[in-house]
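User: My instructor asked us to take a sequence, write out its structure as tokens, and then describe one feature of it. I'm not sure where to start. Here is the sequence I was given:
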Amino acid sequence: MTELATRAQAFGLIAEGVAAGLSAPWRLYVARGCRYLSLSVGDRTEWDTWRTHLGCPELSVRVYDAGGEIRRASVAEVVLDGCRISVELVEEVGTDDLDRLLVADPTSIEPEER
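Assistant: Let's start with the prediction itself. The structure tokens for your sequence are:
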């Protein structure tokens, strides 16, 4: 898809990913005018497959306290035809998992390091 000028085209982009075997996002937000499209996924595997499928070069991680819970928000973004597309994953982590917060890919930690 080369143009995301309409909501139908944005939903078509998601439908193409699902047709290719990716899990459907659990939340989808399309801003008015289709200048922003946000997909929320349920786990790191889904996040990795969607960001790879969309070719997202920009990655960011944010850690924050949400009422006593520590959360890690991973966001991958790409801009296609003026539409910013983000794939978001929010994970709850405990204080025993703080080592996961220090690495970009927590699945790369060896089991004995966890």
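For the description part of your assignment, you could build on this observation: Helices lie at 7-19, 44-54. Try explaining in your own words what that tells you about the chain.
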